[in-house]
């Protein structure tokens, strides 16, 4: 496997084994958008909302001390939301995605803030973008845990995704947002809910997924060893 990080910040696969122009995906947004390529949708069926969980691969690195460890890793699991809308629907859909993100994160007991990003912080596809940051005590600063973007017709023109309105075809608007990026969410949860004795208090909303446990403590039990000849 070769890395082409300076130009694309993604991992490219060795062409000798995998053929030419093969890369590891950095987000499920790519697959979800590709799923709708070369399609035409009736206006009555929009907005169309999709979601996917996937393994994500990023070649980007950082020399910032606060971004060491699990804050910036080369592969991680992420749940991604994706939507296509008419031109008139996309502004409201961006607010809908942001509200979904806030409803997901608020019950977790983490302190967070929402940033309406200025134009110079936007990538080429994005018309408008929100970043959601959580306070991470170990870093003594906020760290991004999620974002959502309205890309208008930047992607749909390249992928030929359209909608039909009275037999007139127009390009859809595409939007995306992170529902959960596992490593940074774990950082925010563990550091926020750790008490002075080292015990991790589990937020109530997550306890049903932890077999009813209310906290995580150091394992003091010695596992039984069974020797096999």
Automatic annotation (TrEMBL):
GO terms for molecular function: ATP binding; serine-tRNA ligase activity. Its EC number is 6.1.1.11. It comes from the Eukaryota. Residues 1-208 form the Aminoacyl-transfer RNA synthetases class-II family profile domain. It holds the Pfam family tRNA-synt_2b. One of its GO terms (biological process) is seryl-tRNA aminoacylation. Belongs to the class-II aminoacyl-tRNA synthetase family. Type-1 seryl-tRNA synthetase subfamily. PANTHER family: SERYL-TRNA SYNTHETASE (PTHR11778). This is serine--tRNA ligase. It comes from Parnassius apollo (Apollo butterfly).
């Amino acid at each position: 496997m070769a890395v082409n990080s300076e130009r694309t910040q993604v991992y490219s696969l060795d062409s000798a084994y995998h053929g030419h122009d093969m890369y590891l995906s950095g987000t499920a947004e790519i697959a979800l958008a590709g799923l709708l390529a070369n399609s035409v949708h009736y206006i009555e069926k929009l907005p169309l909302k999709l979601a996917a969980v996937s393994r994500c691969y990023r070649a980007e690195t950082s020399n910032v001390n606060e971004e060491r460890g699990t804050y910036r890793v080369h592969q991680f699991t992420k749940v991604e939301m994706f939507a296509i809308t008419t031109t008139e629907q996309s502004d409201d859909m961006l607010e809908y995605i942001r509200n979904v993100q806030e409803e997901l994160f608020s019950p977790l007991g983490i302190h967070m803030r929402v940033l309406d990003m200025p134009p110079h912080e936007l990538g080429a596809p994005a018309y408008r973008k929100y970043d959601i940051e959580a306070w991470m005590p170990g870093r003594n600063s906020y760290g991004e845990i999620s974002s959502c973007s309205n890309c208008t017709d930047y992607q749909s023109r390249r992928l030929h995704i359209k909608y039909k309105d009275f037999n007139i075809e127009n390009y859809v608007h595409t939007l995306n947002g992170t529902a959960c990026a596992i490593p940074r969410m774990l950082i925010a949860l563990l550091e926020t809910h750790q008490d002075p004795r080292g015990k991790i208090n589990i937020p109530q909303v997550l306890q049903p997924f932890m077999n009813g446990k209310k906290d995580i403590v150091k394992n003091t039990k010695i596992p039984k060893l069974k020797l096999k000849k």
